[in-house]
Amino acid sequence: MSVLRSRPVLRWLVPATAAVAVIGGGAAIGTFAAEAEPSLPPRTAAQLLVDLQTSRLEGLSGTVVQRADLGLPPLVGLVPGNELTTLLTGTHTLRVWYSGPDQQRVALMDTLGEQDIIRNGRDLWTWQSRSNTATHRTLGGDAGAWKPAPEPAASLPATPQQAADLALGAIDPSTEVSVGRSATVAGQDAYELVLQPRDGDSLVHQLRIAIDAKQHVPLRFEVLAKGSDRPAFEVAFTQVDYRRPDADQFRFNPPPGVTVDEEKAERPTGKPGHVEPAGDPQVRAVGDGWTTVLIGRLDGADVGGKPATKPATPPAGSAPDMDMSKLLGGLPAVSGDWGSGRLLTSKLFSVLLTDDGRVLAGAVTPERLYQAARG
Fold first, then answer.
1. Which among 288, 19, 32 is positioned nearest to 163, based on CA atoms?
2. Predicted pLDDT at 68
């Protein structure tokens, strides 16, 4: 269980969609801070975990940037509008505001246009600049547990807090936890907490979380792939202000000509935007810890020249006009005593699509997928 789960202030705003969401993201990777390493009093990993759990943050605003270099195969042109490719290879900039569990705002600003989500008490507003459309929902009494996500970047952790919560939830005997080098992030001195898988089949080398030395808030989150000393994914504050934002930041002022859609509140099930394999009878998990493999089915897709018997159903949020046969045909063919299929690999995760319609995915080597496919 995440040590942050009891501190809602450290997991506000945006949920992620899956384990590999921690390692989705943007483009050219560098470092967010090149300042000299600050001199800080020594603290143990256990003390830093307690710091995260006991922080008392009342307000925050700032700018967050996501970047990634996943080493994905060239998929440009296979997805209409290239929106999926943009999400996997672009740099994303967000502005965030926080003033307690019932006042939150996030604005995503990139080539896809600006998208805002504003929560003010029981009122939840979303707005998209490209279509100048907005939705309004009145949240129920249990809305405190629901942290909505902006589209289309809902599959990506939007803040270091959210990414850290996901990562710390993975701490178990398969994880080595240590203290790294101190750093300066967004002008704040920070300690570094390092999580490292013990299993050699994990493609993840380390997760690094920079924690504000005074406020105890995650300021930067980095994922390093095996064999690399540069982040394959990072999300960090480039500017942060710990003063409580003005109340006007959480009031939605519809722009001229906007179309507003009133929606009925729905009771959330589980963690919004987060895959819970145990709750989906179509998806099961093999293994545990960092080398967990998720296994499901891709109904209707023509993987090995023979489509499945059921009609294809696009996943929620996917591009409806995606040519799956063209996408799968561009992946290398693989085979073994487990069967045959197509393989997608990146620096941080692998996906195996078998000719009999199975989908196996994890932050693991292809060999671990083949092992799971045999079973």
1. 19
2. 80
Q: How far apart are CA 240 and CA 38, in angstroms?
A: 18
Confidence of residue 318 (pLDDT cuts 50, 70, 90): very low
At 272 the pLDDT is 37
pTM of the model: 0.74
Residue 248 backbone dihedrals phi, psi, to 5 degrees? -65, -25
Question: Measured between alpha carbons, how far is 202 from 87 in angstroms, rounded to an integer?
Answer: 24
Q: Which two tokens stand for residue 228?
A: 């690399």
**What six digits make up the tokens of 285?**
């998990």
Q: How many CB atoms lie within 10 A of CB 78?
A: 18
* Sign of the alpha-carbon torsion through 287, 224, 196, 175: negative
Residues facing 239 on adjacent strands: 63
Q: Residue 308's Cα: distance from chain center in Å?
A: 30
Nearest to 87 by CA among 38, 21, 183, 164: 21
pLDDT given for residue 316 in this prediction: 40
The size of the chain, in residues, is 375
User: Longest Cα pair distance anywhere in the chain, in angstroms?
Assistant: 63
